[in-house]
Every structure is written in structure tokens, then in C-alpha cells.
## 1
Amino acid sequence: MNWQEVCSNPNLKNLPFKIELNEYGQIVMSPMKVLHSLLQGEIERLLLRYATGGKVFPECAIFTPKGTKVADVVWVSDARLQIIKHEAECSIAPEICIEVLSDSNTEREMVAKKKLYFGQGAQEFWLCDQQGSMRFFNADNELAHSQMLPDFPVRVDV
């Protein structure tokens, strides 16, 4: 199965799960709790406050060599948005890709997603744990704070 087939399948439209594809075209579903959505929404709100010259949005499907991955929140520049906005899945990753950890996520999974997003052109990867603590990464290292948005808080309160 490819991402376009997932998007057009009426049986998959309103499931209460985050859907991704693995490298074999199989659907992977992860349930989300209210806290996950609250953190996601607060990150979006803060991004709208601190980021300019682009767009913020949730649930961004990104093509990777290991299947379609869906970042919880992204920030994309206006220039990159012109390339991806009509695609079913982003052919290049937004500049900032953010994952909010849930009970079903593993450290191994997040390390793999981080590598895949950077391989598709992301400039930063952010990780938010269930207590709202933020971690920031570039392709080489963990950072004390975002280099792209240095005023973004290291903790998100909901």
C-alpha cells in the first residue's frame, strides 16, 4: 500500500489513531491520548508565536525510504511549502519536525525517525516527552535549544 491509497481509502479516514506506513507498505497505527493532543496543540501555539516566514501544522506525512512517517507538528518555510503543499506526502521534510512521545513510542523508534527526517532534508528534530520537556537536535548533535528558534521554551506546559 502507498500513502495515496491510504489517503483515499474510506475505511481509514476517521480512525482514532495516527497512521503511518512502514518500509513494506504495511499500515502502522498508534493510539493517542488526550495529553498527546494537548502537548501537540501547545507546541503549535508556541511555534506560531516564535516562528515567522513559514507555516505550522500538525500530522505531516513525510516520504522516507522506510515508509511514510507522520510528524506530530512541523514548521515549514514559505519557500519549501511551495514545493510540498499539493503533495500527498512531503517529498522533502519540513525544516522542523517534531514528535510528541506517547506510551507506544520507543527511544529506538524516535532515533530512527530523527535519522529519516534528516535524510529527507529536515534541519532540526524536536522531541517532547509526556511531561512537556523539549529536546532539540540538528543532524549531528543534541542542542541546548533550537538553533532556528532559540527563544522556543525547553518546557511546554499544558
Note: The chain has a mean pLDDT of 91.
## 2
Amino acid sequence: MSIRSRRAHRELHGYLEGLYGPQPTLIIREIPHEGAVRISLTVSGTTAIRPDPEDGQTYSSASIDRYAPEFVSLVEQIAARLVAIRSERYTPGGGLEPQDQSDAEYDLHADYYHLIPLASLEIGVPWIEVVRAVAEVLRREDLLDGVVSSQIKQKFASLRWYFDSKPRDFRDQINVIISAAEHLSTVVCETCGAPGRHRRGGWHVIACDPCDEARGRKRTKRVGGDG
């Protein structure tokens, strides 16, 4: 397995563990495509254990059951597609080629100009890649016709996706897909896109450990000044 493939497996595994905890039955397989830039993975066996309602914690009563097998399968699909998109920027040595914010916005708009008006995007590159993964799922399911976004932003450490137009005939289907993407975003670092988690400290963000440490150093420097 190449360095790029190992990274893809690790990131997909990390996203799903971040959402659902340890995954002893998770199966990730690579689909080889000769000459392809993307690393395509299939995933199955995610274990989603419902929270114990008697554990003293407070859980939101979402209208969509995020622990239902069908919803978990959808999250798996979007996560695998996100990794495939990110893999286009993997370097042979294990790094990640940077992408300019403006280029990422323009490229997404150019590919999905009805779905994603340029003015609708208020997120960084990693979550733009989440949005692209969703757009690809909507295209695969033939759900793009008449769908127009109004605003895509971060709110309370989660992706929020709002629409100007959403056809009634498949509105519910789109809502479930968007909900799965918003759920996935809660484990995607907003700075680099690696598996992360919710961090507090002046502003609610999703960050991986290295990005959170860098964020802490910047915060300390601002408070302490230059000495």
C-alpha cells in the first residue's frame, strides 16, 4: 500500500471513529483505477452505538435519526468521497498540497454553478471539499435540478447549509444528505481537513490536535504580546 493510500485509509477511519467511537468491525477497501489521481475507497461495517438516554448527558432531538443504518451508510459514502477529493492533493511523501481559497471557491462554482453561487460560500477549503463531496452525491442521485444554495457557513462548530430553492418532490431526500454532511463536518478540521473534534476557547471550531495546538500558541502570543 502506498503512502497516499495509507493516508486515505487513516483519514476515513479517523472521521468515522470521531463520529461513532472505536470501530472494530470497520472494513475499508480501495478500488483500484489505473492512472486515477483519486484514491477511491469503499467502507462498511461502521458501528454506531446510540447514546444512553440515562447517562446524564443532554442530546438534541433531531428529526433525522443519525444512528439509523441508512443514515450511517450515507455518512460513510460522503466521508469516502471526501477522502477521494482530498487525495487529489496528497503528495507522494505524505504531505498535502495547499489550495488557494479563491481557487477552491471558483472551481466548485464552475462545476456546480446552479447549486453553488459564489456568494454563498463562507467556509474554508477543507469544508469546501465536504460541500463538493455532497454535490457529487447529489449529481449521482440526479438531485441537482432546481436546487440553489443561499448560504453555506460554519455555526457552532458545524456546517450549516441554507437554500433559496429546493424542489418539493425530493426535498426530504436532499435534507437527509445535507444532514449527513453537517454531521460529518463535526469531525473535519476546518484548517487542514484532517480528522478533528470540537474545540472551545473564544470560538467554537473543529480542529485536529496539531491545528488546535497552533491555535493555542497564537492565542497565547496575542495575550502575552511580543514580550
Note: The mean pLDDT is 92.
## 3
Amino acid sequence: MKAARLHQYNHPLQIDEVDLPKPKGEGVLVKVSGAGVCHSDIHFMKGEWKDALPVKLPLTVGHETAGYVEEMGESVQGFSKGDAVAVFGGWGCGICQACKGGDEQLCSMPRWPGLSQNDGGYAEYIHVPSYRFLVKVDGLDPKNIAPLTDAGLTPYRAVKKVRHLLNPNTYTLLFGVGGLGCYAIQYLKLFSPTNVIAVVRSEDKANLAKKMGSDFVINSRTNNVIAEVKKITSNQGIDVAIDVVSSNETLTTGMSCLRKKGTMVIVGLMGNSFNLPIMESVLNEFRVIGSLWGNYNELTEVLSLAKMNKLQIPVNHYKLSDVGKAIENLESGKICGRAVLIP
């Protein structure tokens, strides 16, 4: 089979011919219909996470995958060849406290596809170690819903953490309207009456934010975000900031926009750290929450929303052979929504 593989950090992926995996036991071979291209893949390929997520190269990249069951091990139950499936990527050990609590994406020994020693979905097929990581998606097109396994799932978990705080007179500030942010806006409007303020860096992203339902849009290239937030909120500030970028700049700006008892949710992985003002944080009772990916049950909830036609899923299709172009366009901010590789 063909697979886009990383042979050396900070080098382009290579399209290789590799052996087709043979599933055994609980394992399943999935014929890939679509594989989402994520900023996390870029961080990984640049070697920024090589200490936190050490792997032996070469490795097939990609952790957002959907397709059809092709072959199964002898212990697989409840699936048949040809079933349309989404692949839950938070592969855990299954026995640690996090896994037993239902949050396998928080496993202390993660086996995430394309980000660990397990090959990912930038390929014609992906080997999934257990059928427990598959969700049937009857009625949905796998090549279009692949991004829901991360881009759609991650902001879903983040919004769930704060939706109890979002009343009609509240304001939520969102940094980043790309692969994740376009879903964050939709969830905020589906689950709460909050006023959504989206911060973008281009007119294309501004238009996408409006299409997804944002009440206000601020272009940070042409406007001072803090000043604009003060105008919109009548100097009250925001109740919640959700940052799917999480650069030093966006996090600092978000903290500066919080009102008393405001909450910051850190989702993105763009930066390394930021300075938290201790006195101001204590006096105003600010809260800072991290949110990682999502669990299996949350993925089933996201897919249910898609089946109910509650979600817009903006995708840009690329051939697997054009993976380099997809990555280039993602890095340069030219993709509205999610790039999806089609083998």
C-alpha cells in the first residue's frame, strides 16, 4: 500500500510502498477514505515534540481517519467487512486510571496513531489495534467526516467544560477559526445563548466565522483585540476565552479580556508557555483549564450531531500524493476548515 511517511524531522513526507498490515486478535484493517491534516501533525513532523513523544522513524503520520472495515482479527465483535467507521485516535492502554475512567486520550502510555509508534492514516489503509477504537458511521461519508475525530471532537470537549457558565448575557472569545475553531463556534451556538466573539487573521477566516454563526468578528491584523472587546462588551470583558491557537500572544490577550471570575480554556499547542499574572488572577478569581482532544463517548456524540445534520463540516480534499501541498497551505493559513487527504 501507499503511505506518506516521515523519515526525518523537518523534512517533507515521502510516499512509500509498504507492506499491508495483517490484523490479528482484536485488530482491524481499515481502508482509508479520508485523513485530516492537523497542525499537530506539523508540530510533530518538525520535531517539536520528539522528547515528549519519542518515536522510531520512519512513521506514517495522521491521527484523523475514517473509512471502511477491510479485514478483521479473529476476536473482533460487532463489525463486518464494508462497515463505514470513524477511528477514535486516543488509543490508550485500557488499564490505567485515565483509561478506566473513560478518558483513554489521557492515558499515561498513549499509542496515538501517527504521533506514537503506531502508523497513522496518511495511507491507503490503517491498522487499528482494537475494534474498541472504531465508531460506526452509517449514513455519513467517511471522507468528509474524518476531521470530526479530532478537529470536531477537541472543541466539543472544551465547550462542554464551560457551557454551564454561558448564559444569555455572557460573552465568549474564541481565538482561531480554522480546523477546530469552526466547530467551536457551532457548539457554542448549539449548546448556549452566549455571544460569540471570534478573533481571526484574514478576511477568509472572518467570512468562515460568520458562516458558522459567530456574533462578532475581530481581525487581529487590523484591529486591537482588547479595545474591540471592550467596545463589544461595554467595558465588562468576557466570561470565557477558548483558545485553539494558544500562542503566547493569544493567551496573554485572552487573559487581558477576562472579566471577574472569567475562565480561560487552553486547547491549542502553538506556544510553549505564557505568564500568568498572579495578583490579578487571585483578585479576580480567574480560572485556567486545559482540554485535550476528547474521549470515545464524546466522539459518538459529535458523530450523532453530524447524523442529525446539526454540523457544517468544511473540508478541502487533496490527493494523498499532494500531501506536501496540503501541509504548505495549512501552514500559510490558506485552508478554511480542514484539509483531508483522499488516498
Note: The longest strand covers residues 28-37.
## 4
Amino acid sequence: MTWLRTLFALLFCLVAIGGASVRAHEVTPAIADFTVTDRQLSLKLRLNIEAFVAGINLDGLSDTNQTPQAADYDELRALEAQELEPMVTLFAEEWLETFRVQAGGPVVLDVTRITIPEVGDASLPRASFLELTGDVPAGTGSLRITWPAGSGGVVLRQNGVVEPYTGYLQGGETSPPIPLRGGAAKTPVEAFMEYIPVGFTHILPKGLDHILFVLGLFFLSPRVKPLLLQVSLFTVAHTITLALGALGMVDVNPAIVEPLIALSIVFVAVENIFARKLHAWRSFVIFGFGLLHGLGFATVLGEFGLPPSQFLPALIGFNVGVELGQLAVIAAAYLGVRLWFGRHPKYRGRVAIPASVTIAMIGSYWFVERVFL
């Protein structure tokens, strides 16, 4: 079993190195709010402009640290708004050539305003705004938007009409025809299906902190019943606060929630070292931590926005995606570890405890980073 311990040490060290600054370098989707008034298209883009200026290909990316431009990106994040704006202007001139809007023909877009906030919390991506306008030909009843390849995901939100369109595009994808007068709101089934992958990708590959928490639950005991009970409590709890957060009934500063999520990872991992079974009080604690994680999910969902006309189906779809992501983590851990070594008499000492120690160390680092760094 010595080789197994070595394998686990290497595996979790890689996870620690890769995820140490996950918040500071997390890739968030762009948001494009658009209206058409008096034949003029107005687009307001909220995006992580430093990643674009650095030339990072955001398609399928969850962490900018995984790119050769990571150092350039960090330098741009530290620039004041007046220093960064000329670079954004140059970038936008070239980028707009690949940002296509068709409305009975190409719509030429011009930059009308650039808004860059002052440097704030370095642990979070800075959200800047790029405002574009273009003339829509007379007699056009709909338009299609092509999001440039390499630009990651974007949430398209139509404004100022009845039953507005809301959709999600990956880099290089084109929207369906969007009626200028509205009426393109998604059906309940469409909204439900579209938000499942949004929830799933927040766990895999983007939710390393949630992945480690679920793994902390997994390594408590090789028996299935305690795992199912813990995951069920966690699911019920985060569903409650996810719904309350999405409805705007609960709003907690991420600067408070994120360190507490890191502490929840430390707690379950440390208890795995000293406890051999699921105690009743751990169940209550897991429920409380589930409430915290639900607030974290609500923050992510707030970045995407939910279609007002199909709020509930989209919310349920997101939650289903989160659950599928968690189940995928558990299934992978079961097939890769417990199926082969769970019945070994030294499973706890040579697998579960070393893994839990490593998870606790990562969670501790994240707590310190999110509070003090």
C-alpha cells in the first residue's frame, strides 16, 4: 500500500497547487444586456476585461492560472482604471471585428463608453463595462448575435420588451433569431434544460471548494449509508439558501461566505481524522454548512441572472445541475478509490486519513487567503 499513499500525496498536492488561488483567477461569464430603441441597438457588456486584454482564450477555461498569459493577467488586474483604459480601447477595436450582429445584414458596432472600477478586492475578478451601439436597418424584425470565439461564456439578456429573450452562449456560438418586439422568452422546459449545465459546470470543473467539501463527506466512512445521509442533508440545506438567495430574500457578502466555506472544508476533513462514524451533531453541522454553500451557489447564479418569466424552472435546473455535479464527484471517488480499497483493513489509516489531512490543509490555506491575503 506504500505506492497508494504516494499516489494520494501526489494527487492532492497537485490539487492544492492548482486550486490555491482559485478565487482570484476564477473565470466568470460575461453578461450582455441589450435593447433596441428607435432602430438603434445598445449593448452593455459586463466582463472581466483584463482576461480579454491579456489575450487569454476563455473557451472552456475555469482558471486563468492555467494559461501562459497568467502573469500578464495579474499585472493588468493591478492597474488603475486610467492606465488600463487605453489598452481596452485598442483591444476593443480588434475584438469588435469578430463580434457579429446580424439584423437583415451586418450591424456595425461602435464603442461608446468604457467603465473600469478602481482596483478593489484582488481575490475577486474585476467587473468592467463596455457599452456598444449600432444602427439596425429599418424593417428588420429580429437579430442574431454571434459571441466571438475565445471569449468564454456570455449571458444574453434582452431588455425593454414583453417576454424578453434570455440565453447563454459559448465562444463562437450564435443566438437564435431574437424578435425585436419581444416574445422570445423560453418555455419552462427550455429554461430548465439550459440551466442544468450552468449548475453542473459550477461543480465540475469550476467548484474546487465544493468538490473538496463533498470529498470530505466521502472519506468519513467506507459505508454507503453515512455518505448518503450526509449528502442528503447538505443538498436540502443548500437548496434552501440557493432559493432564498435567488429570490433576493437573503443577501450575505461573499467576503463573509467564502472564508466560512473554506472553514467548512477544514471541519469535515479534520473530523474525519478523529471520528469513525457519523455522529448526530455532525449531521446538524453539515446542514449548517450546506446553508453556507447554498449562499455561494446563489452568488454564482446571480452572475448569470434568471429569466423573469421562467424563474422557477431555471432555478430548479441550476440546482439539478449542481446535484449532478456532486454525484459525479462521488461516483468518481467511489470508482477510483472505494470500490478497490474500501474493504481493505488499513483503508482508513492509509487512504481516508491522509486524504482528509490534505483536504484540511487546502481548506486552511483558502481560509487564510480569503481573510488575510
Note: The chain has two domains: 30-185, 191-372.
